[in-house]
Amino acid sequence: MSTLTQQDTFQALFAASPENFHSIRNSGKESFLNQGIPAVKAEEYKFTNISKKLDNALTNFSTALPFEVTPSQVKSALFEGFEGDVLVFANGAFLPELSSTIEGVEISKLSDKPETSLGSIAKASKDPFAALNQASFVDGIFISVPKKSQIERPILLLSFNKENLGQVIQPRVWIEVGDFAEVTFIDQSISLSDSAYFVNKVVEVKGGVNSQISYYRLQNEGKNTIEVSNIETDILKDAKFTSVNISLSGDMVRNNLSLNLLGSNSEGNMFGVYLLNGKTHVDNHTNVDHTIPHADSNELYKGILADQSRGVFNGKIFVRQDAQKTNAFQQNNNILLSEDAIVNTKPQLEIWADDVKCSHGCTVGQLDEEALFYLRARGLDKLSAKGLLLYAFAGEVLEKIEEESFHNHVVNLIQERLGSKF
Amino acid sequence: MLSIKNLHASIEGNEILRGINLEVKAGEVHAIMGPNGSGKSTLASVLAGREEYEVTEGEVIFQGKDLLELAPEDRAREGVFLAFQYPVEIPGVSSTNFLRTALNQVREYRGQEPLDAVKFLSLMKEKMALVEIDQKLLSRSLNEGFSGGEKKRNEIFQMAMLEPVLSILDETDSGLDIDALRIVSNGVNKLKSDKTATIVVTHYQRLLDYIVPDYVHVLYKGRIVKSGTKELALELEEKGYDWIKEEVDSAATV
User: Fold this and answer.
1) End-of-domain residue from the set A228, A263, A298
2) What ipTM, to 2 d.p.?
């Protein structure tokens, strides 16, 4: 059996790549071959040994084929109270016949949009997995929200995934949002089987001037799902982009989230909760690039780790020399519920401008025993008291989700996991 | 109602309580006084079930039940209430939600129906008036950003909501100005009945002008070394604790 350190493992993926996006694929492949799969000592993947994980867990490193999804599967995947439009995917392939048409929004398969400048936002040179996707994705989706349109109903990107002849799924999403437009996306994947597969996802978001984009994401897949995602956005003048990422399950998950603040008075928000148990490993690598003056970024990630789970947080804030009057805030707090749980947290600030406000902080601790006793002394049983405290801890992030039905859905999932309802 | 016999308790191997004996009957108010470090707060904590303390000897019977066998929440459900010396700030937990969950768990234990939102709110309104607490405070996170006086008032409000049989006030008066002290004491006095009892742990006699005790006990080095009526508190106010320390320490050396 070949291993990932031998690059011929990937030849099957390259060989099966479609003909379209020829030069983009070629540069992706070249970039991938230059970078290689991250070695154990690669700084960016130091705490997340994805190569070893893929080696051990996957037997068939070729594309998992699309499959048929039934309307009832779609219906049962929708959470209570959801009133929005749904775009359905099977192993990364867009299924228009099961998806909504959304008035005023252009939606196509990427293969029907060969002029799309894939890789211009999430650059292949920055991450080997982005490069691998760029070289060998099968198809994906193109979403364009026109100028000045306010899309009131949220758009749910609903992906069904499973091993299907192959084990590699490479979704590719291109979103462009016109000037002054507003839109909310919810990104959710459903595992249809417990067998191992690898999702290597790239989402590029090109926001217009004064646009307002929310991108909410729920990661609650099967216990054997391995996932790497690269989500990257360009934020122009007066625009706002908010990401809320909720990770609840999976085998090994690595999220690379990059916000490029390219226009003044722009705002980038990155929020996340990881509530993990078993042996789940979730790594959030975020990167915000302040390139111009007068832009703000806010970041808050909270982790609750039980059993032998592991959380990794790496928050990079880059403030370029021109980016005076930057406000950049970052916070990562963790509660460990077991002696075997591990968190590695690392703020990484690189500041070249001299008139900025930047702050960062991280904490790793246990549940506050004094608070627990206080609640119990009022008659709350231990489980409820713990649940209430942990829920309150995560709540600061959850309240950033402005879409009500999704907020309630996430709250329910989290309360269920914490073993209590309030 | 409460019978404490030869209670010994220690924390991290240091013995703090060294043989407490105390009988409290329904309708009574007992004041526990004593110099700093005498074990007053430890006694309150042990009764409420704080787990850092290890009871090494003795027994506590509360309404016929072995209190020391019960988890803290079950003591609360049986009717023991501790007003904390330092109420804990808990960001993100709404006072109202928390109290409703707590009250309904207590009611369930006592075999009562849970209160629905409407009944809960009307009960809250009634008790808020009793302890003169502002609705605004209760719409915030539990104790978060409250002043010292507001925290103590919130303790008495929770006490009013949970309707305990035995209330233990751990230095509820410390740090309060006269107005706040009057409000808190009024609340406690209104909640008293011939079926309930109160243990007031305090360093100062001042509180006892407002909450008048039937008995005053002086705790020193983990034992009750003197008991009397409210006049004993006034004597302590006048003369301090030194004379009692001397009495006890000289008796010990003889």
Assistant:
1) A263
2) 0.94
Domain membership of residue A210 (yes or no) is yes
DSSP for A108-121, written as a single string:
EEGGG-TT--TTSS
Domain count, chain B: 1
Query: Number of A:B CB contacts under 8 A?
Result: 75
Phi, psi of A209 (to 5 degrees): -60, 135
pLDDT by 10s per residue, chain B, length 254: 999 999 999 999 899 999 999 999 999 999 999 888 899 999 999 999 999 999 999 999 999 999 999 999 999 999 999 999 999 999 888 888 899 999 999 999 999 999 999 999 999 999 999 888 888 888 889 999 998 888 998 999 999 999 999 999 999 888 788 888 888 898 899 889 999 999 999 988 888 989 999 999 999 999 999 999 989 988 888 888 888 888 888 876 65
Query: In angstroms, what separates the C-alpha of A280 from chain B's closest C-alpha?
Result: 26
Range of the domain at A190: 7-263
Name the E strands within A263-341: 267-276, 281-290, 296-305, 310-319, 327-336
Q: Which residues pair with A202 in a beta bridge?
A: A172, A230
Same domain, A392 and A243: no
Q: Is residue A93 part of a domain?
A: yes
Which residue range forms the structural domain that includes residue B30?
2-253
List CB contacts (< 8 A) between A422 and chain B: 97, 101
Cβ-Cβ contacts under 8 Å for A333 (sequence gap 6 or more): A301, A302, A303, A362, A363, A364, A365, A393
Name which of A373, A381, A392 is nearest B92 (Cβ-Cβ).
A392
Q: Do both A254 and A376 map to the same domain?
A: no
Closest chain B residue to A389, measured at CA = B93
